[in-house]
Design goal:
It is a single chain. With 96 residues, the chain is mostly beta strands. The chain has one domain: 10 Kd Chaperonin, Protein Cpn10, Chain O. The protein is 0% helix and 34% strand. It is built from no helices and six strands. β4 and β5 form a beta hairpin. The model has no long low-confidence stretch (mean pLDDT 84).
């Protein structure tokens, strides 16, 4: 994958695909599946300072599995793979 470095308090993530089969055993086509909300952190932004001059702290690290908002961020295709650049505030939680 090409080297992409997000800027500011943005995070580069890759969605983790959801199951292609329903609980009842029915195979779901791509068009019927919801966008997955689980993703893996690939890169962190450059950080910076907030409006009060305090250093921006990232609460995730590369490799973390996170829950993201369903429709947040910007989808980008890099080397044939779809990745997402989101604001750190679009991360809802870290999967344990």
């Amino acid at each position: 994958m090409a080297n992409i470095k997000p800027l500011g308090q943005r995070v580069l993530v890759k969605r983790i695909e959801a199951e292609a089969m329903s609980a009842g055993g029915i195979v779901l086509p791509d068009t019927a599946r919801e966008k997955p909300q689980e993703a893996e952190v690939l890169a962190l932004g450059t950080g910076g300072k907030d409006d009060n001059g305090n250093e921006i702290v990232f609460h995730v690290k590369v490799g973390d599995k996170v829950l993201i908002s369903k429709y947040g961020g910007t989808e980008v295709k890099v080397d044939g793979q779809e990745v997402l650049i989101i604001s750190q505030s679009d991360i809802l939680g870290v999967c344990g």
